[in-house]
Design a protein that fits this description.
The structure holds two protein chains of two kinds. Helix content of chain A is about 5%, strand content about 65%. Chain A is mostly beta strands. Chain A has a 16-stranded antiparallel barrel with strand order 1-2-3-5-6-7-8-9-10-13-14-15-16-17-18-19. A three-stranded antiparallel β-sheet of chain A has the order 4-12-11, with no helix packed on it. Chain B contains two helices and no strands. Chain B is elongated and about 45 Å long. The chains are: A mainly beta, B mainly alpha. Chains A and B meet through helix 1, strand 1, strand 2, strand 5 and strand 6 of A and helix 1 and helix 2 of B.
Chain lengths: ~375, ~70
C-alpha cells in the first residue's frame, strides 16, 4: 500500500514536472488597431523568442514595429493649416479650432530579458529595452528579483527596479541653447525611475492571489510636443494665442494592484485584477478587469474579457481657454473620464508544437473615441 | 474609493486564512496557460498595456520592465 502511494506520488510529480518545464518558443503576433473619427490607426507586427539554457538560465528576445498614422486632437490656427505646429500669437478666436491634426510615425522597439535561477530557485531577471521613433528615443534597464518564502514555494516576494532614459525632439523652447523663433528643434531628456514590490500566495491547488505596490518618478520634458493650448489674456478681447501645452517637469505616482486567479472547474478559469493609481498631477484612477477562459477539448482555449477604467482630472487640464497659468494642457488624457474594454479570443492547438490565436477587442473611451483592434498570432514550441 | 481598495485588500488578506500548503505535484492546474496573464500570450498583453498607457492618464502595476515610447 505504501509502495503504491509512493509510486503514485512519483508518477504525479513526473506529470507535473513535464507541464511545469519551461518551453522554448518563437511567437509572432500581428495587431491592427483603428480608432473612430479618423483618429489613429496602428499596424503592429511583433516577435518574441524564448530559450532555456539548462535549468538555470533563460533568455527572451522581443522585437516590435509600429506603423502609426491618422489624426490626434488638439487646438490649432486654421489660417496656417491643421498641423500640430499651427501655432501663433494674436490670432482671432474665429481662426482657432479644436480638431484632428494629421501625423504619422514609425516605431521600432527591441527587448532582451535574461533570467538566472539560483540553487534556491530564486530568480534574478535583468532586462534591456530600446525604442526609437522619429522624435523619441527610449532606453531602459530593469532588474527584478523573485524570492521564494519557504521550501514549498507557495509564497514569493518580488522586487523590481527600472531606470528609463529618454530623449524627445521638440520645437525650440526659448532658452540659452535654443531660439524659439528659429524654427529649429532641440533634444530634451525624460528620466523615469520605477519600483514595484509584489507578493504572491498560492491559496490552494486551484487558486492564487497577487498583491503589489508600485512607484514611479518622472523627471524632464513631460509635455507632448504636438499638443497645443489656447491662451486668452483679456476676456474682453477676441485675440488669443495658440501655444504649446506645458505640463509640469516632474511627476510622482504610486499605486497598488490586487489579482485573484482561480480555476473554477477543470475547464474554466478566471483572472480578476484591481489597480489603484494616484499621482501629484491629481490624477487618481481605478481599473477593474476580469478575464474568463474555457478549455474546449484538448485543442481549444476560448477567452473573454471585460475592463473598466475611471480617472480624475489633472490639476492643469482645461478643455477651453487658459489665461497666464504656468501649467496648461488640453490633452484629453488629462481629463476625467470612464472607459470600457471588451475582448474575445481563441487559441487553437494545431499540433503539439504549433498553435494559432485570434482575438477581437473593443475599447470605448467616454465622449471622445472608441477603438477596434484585432490580433492574429502563431506560437511554435520546441 | 480608497475604502473600496482597503476592503479588497482586507478580503485578500483574510483569504490567507484559507491557505492550503500545496505540494509541488499538486500544482498542475496552477501551471496551466489559462492561469497566467492573457492566457500566456505575452505579446498581446504587452500591446494592450501599450494602448492603455498611450490613451489614459495613468500607468504602472504590470511590472517594471515596460520600455518607453513617445506616446505620453
Amino acid at each position: 500500500m505504501q509502495l503504491k502511494t509512493k509510486l503514485s506520488i512519483i508518477a504525479s510529480s513526473l506529470i507535473v514536472a513535464s507541464s511545469l518545464a519551461a518551453e522554448d518558443y518563437v511567437s509572432v503576433q500581428f495587431v491592427q488597431y483603428d480608432e473612430s473619427d479618423d483618429r489613429a490607426s496602428v499596424s503592429t507586427p511583433s516577435i518574441e523568442f524564448s530559450k532555456d539554457f539548462g535549468v538555470d538560465y533563460n533568455l527572451k528576445l522581443g522585437l516590435v514595429a509600429d506603423s502609426i498614422s491618422g489624426g490626434s486632437p488638439t487646438w490649432f490656427d486654421t489660417t496656417s493649416g491643421a498641423s500640430a505646429y499651427s501655432r501663433g500669437e494674436d490670432i482671432h478666436k474665429d481662426d482657432v479650432a479644436y480638431g484632428n491634426v494629421e501625423y504619422d510615425d514609425k516605431r521600432v522597439a527591441g527587448s532582451a530579458l535574461f533570467t538566472t535561477r539560483f540553487a534556491s530557485r530564486d530568480e534574478l531577471a535583468v532586462g534591456l529595452n530600446y525604442s526609437r521613433e522619429t522624435d523619441y528615443e527610449a532606453r531602459e534597464l530593469s532588474a527584478e528579483y523573485l524570492y521564494y518564502l519557504g521550501s514549498s514555494k507557495n509564497q514569493s516576494l518580488s522586487l523590481g527596479l527600472s531606470y528609463q532614459f529618454n530623449n524627445v525632439l521638440v520645437e525650440c523652447i526659448e532658452n540659452e541653447a535654443c531660439d524659439a523663433n528659429s524654427g529649429a528643434s532641440q533634444t530634451l531628456d525624460v528620466n523615469v525611475v520605477s519600483a514595484e514590490v509584489g507578493f504572491t500566495q498560492i491559496l490552494n491547488q486551484n487558486s492564487l492571489a497577487k498583491a503589489s505596490i508600485f512607484y514611479s518618478n518622472e523627471d524632464g520634458y513631460l509635455s507632448n510636443p504636438y499638443m497645443n493650448v489656447v491662451r486668452s489674456y483679456n476676456p474682453n478681447s477676441s485675440i488669443v494665442d495658440v501655444v504649446a501645452e506645458n505640463k509640469p517637469d516632474t511627476r510622482v505616482s504610486y499605486g497598488a494592484t490586487l489579482q485573484y486567479i482561480v480555476a473554477l472547474t477543470d475547464q474554466i478559469s478566471s483572472n480578476s485584477t484591481y489597480r489603484f493609481y494616484d499621482d501629484d498631477w491629481d490624477i487618481m484612477s481605478h481599473t477593474i478587469s476580469s478575464e474568463l477562459y474555457y478549455e474546449l477539448g484538448r485543442s481549444w482555449i476560448l477567452g473573454a474579457g471585460l475592463r473598466y477604467y475611471t480617472q480624475s482630472e489633472a490639476k492643469f487640464y482645461r478643455a477651453g481657454y487658459f489665461g497666464d497659468e504656468m501649467y496648461a494642457s488640453s490633452d484629453e488624457r488629462m481629463r476625467d473620464f470612464d472607459a470600457w474594454g471588451y475582448k474575445i479570443n481563441a487559441d487553437y492547438l494545431i499540433t503539439n508544437a504549433l498553435s494559432v490565436n485570434v482575438g477581437l477587442n473593443f475599447y470605448d473611451q467616454q465622449d471622445t473615441f472608441n477603438a477596434t483592434y484585432y490580433n492574429i498570432g502563431l506560437k511554435y514550441s520546441f | 474609493m480608497i475604502k473600496g481598495f482597503l476592503l479588497m485588500a482586507s478580503v485578500l488578506l483574510l483569504s490567507g486564512c484559507a491557505v492550503k500548503d500545496v505540494q509541488p505535484w499538486e500544482k498542475e492546474t496552477l501551471a496551466k496557460d489559462t492561469m497566467k496573464n492573457g492566457a500566456g500570450n505575452a505579446l498581446m498583453t504587452k500591446f494592450e498595456n501599450h494602448i492603455y498607457f498611450s490613451k489614459e492618464g495613468s500607468k504602472g502595476g504590470g511590472g517594471v520592465a515596460g520600455g518607453g515610447c513617445g506616446c505620453n
